[in-house]
């Protein structure tokens, strides 16, 4: 049996993938386990050769893969190209970083006299079989950010791409296969998460789960994992806080870019603006002017706003908008939906009793929350169940660091939009935004385990 993959742009058939069942999952996991010993026994240098070769193949096929990605997830073509090119760099850097992960020797004499003859050899070893589950919105980069650090560490990988984004994910795997990666080291599971997801997540052969997606599914995986280690990248409600002394031209530019690129379908998108009331009108005028210039349409037509991943997502965003309007929010741009295409919307006078103030829309809508004081801005920002990222716009360095130190998030951007950043930076969320730390080096460390060997001299 096969599953058809349809384009969110026009509903056209892009291809099909095998609909896998529990028996298929069993076979894949057994193969992954059997391949583990051979792969982990290779030198890091040898494993890195495969990574470099795969990056070259990805670079060579970037136009083709970017084209598939844009058709499959309705991402603007220029952004798809950037994602593929960024992933080429991620693979190369991961190969290099793998060579910089060392064990250590610890002498007991540094602790006390009774231990002075003891020496500990501390090794880093791969955890084993890693289940990597990627989301639809970055089907190449967020897949590679899981797969490559796992592989360079000596793990084997079972890769489950999102059902929307699966063709792009398969193209990435083909690059590694063409690079000569040994059979069974990297395998793809295709099928409906609703049918095989729980079985995939709870299989006895799993040693580690690395997941990016929604908070509810992440919480479910966390419970299913029990004592097995996990790395979760989940939802966000990233705030842009704008103080009285901020450069409003820069703030408005960064806010619009951060909120509306790829139609807001990013966990790190700016999803609310908290602005001091004294400057709110001026800032909103600048934001509105820029939002009105955003281009809407087909991802191959050099636009910023494209159809959302499916109509269900668009209806969800529309419901949040309607709730806000019914409670007194003011739409500063046209409220318009055509199937799964939502036109960019700026909402003023948003208050804490509106769902849009707290719920992650994953669409092109930006709520403005006016606050009277800096303390109120900080309080509202920290009330969120999420803790991924925040931005603070101010020309006062002391205030910038005060907010940075007190915001309950994994990353704070000073005078810039929220964004994932270079792939070698640490990336994490607290509260309901995730568990563990990603970023190339941190991902490698997460997917290795320590073994200590103690000898008496």
Automatic annotation (TrEMBL):
Keyword line: NADP, Oxidoreductase
Annotated ranges, domain Aldehyde dehydrogenase: 2-453
PROSITE patterns, per the entry: ALDEHYDE_DEHYDR_CYS, ALDEHYDE_DEHYDR_GLU
GO molecular function: lactaldehyde dehydrogenase (NAD+) activity
InterPro entries attached to this UniProt entry: Ald_DH/histidinol_DH (IPR016161), Ald_DH_C (IPR016163), Ald_DH_CS_CYS (IPR016160), Ald_DH_CS_GLU (IPR029510), Ald_DH_N (IPR016162), Aldehyde_DH_dom (IPR015590), ALDH-related_metabolic_enz (IPR051020)
Keyword DNA-binding listed: no
Parts forming coiled coils: none
Active-site residues, record numbering mapped to chain: 233
Pfam families: Aldedh
Recorded family membership: Belongs to the aldehyde dehydrogenase family.
Descriptive protein name: NADP-dependent glyceraldehyde-3-phosphate dehydrogenase
Record organism: Streptobacillus felis
